[in-house]
Amino acid sequence: MEPAALERFHSPGKGNGLRSRRRVRPGELLYRGVPFAYIVSKEQLGSVCERCLRRDGNLYRCSQCKVAKYCGSSCQKEAWLDHKQECKCLKSIKPNFPPDSVRLAGRIVFKLLRQSVCPSERLYSFSDLQSNAELLSEEMKDGLRHLAQTLQLYLKTEIHDESQLPPAIDFFQIFTK
């Protein structure tokens, strides 16, 4: 089903949702989304291709950061737009390695800065996501602030100062979404 056949709606107390504008048959595919951003978790690094996520015993690693691995040159080329800035950040913090949540937030920041739009954003954009900051305990907020600081350190080779970012990009808020 095309996204035009779906509509967004807000349900008070429950958040946002999608519903069909027409009858659907059992088993009919309603929606297929492309993720806005994703990463391979630290545990899976080296065992799956960074682009297609295929398990392969013969992966080729990025010659720059030596972290990302790909099943072939076509996957590496397709992934380069998402990996290019991350690659510089990974090289700059060696031998340290960021938590998965920080790497993912970094990819989100880079995509927001590029003003990249993926097909799934026709229904919801990143800015449409609801922050849950008001529901968090102070201890949880402190933990997210620590992650936001870690993100700032991780991105420092590409983003020298958080004040250079558009107001819509707030490191803390990215973690609350």
UniProtKB/TrEMBL annotation:
Ligase found in the keyword field: no
An annotated Gene Ontology molecular function: zinc ion binding
Protein name as catalogued: [histone H3]-lysine(4) N-trimethyltransferase
Catalytic EC class: transferase
One GO cellular component, as annotated: nucleus
Sorted UniProt keywords: Metal-binding, Methyltransferase, S-adenosyl-L-methionine, Transferase, Zinc, Zinc-finger
Source taxon at top rank: Eukaryota
SUPFAM superfamilies registered for this protein in UniProt: HIT/MYND zinc finger-like (SSF144232)
Region described as Disordered: 1-20
Reaction catalysis annotation: L-lysyl(4)-[histone H3] + 3 S-adenosyl-L-methionine = N(6),N(6),N(6)-trimethyl-L-lysyl(4)-[histone H3] + 3 S-adenosyl-L-homocysteine + 3 H(+)
Ranges where the MYND-type domain occurs: 49-87
Start-end of Basic and acidic residues biased regions: 1-10
EC number: 2.1.1.354
Xref: InterPro entries: H3K4_H4K5_MeTrfase, Znf_MYND
TM helices/strands, residue ranges: none
Pfam families attached to this UniProt entry: zf-MYND (PF01753)
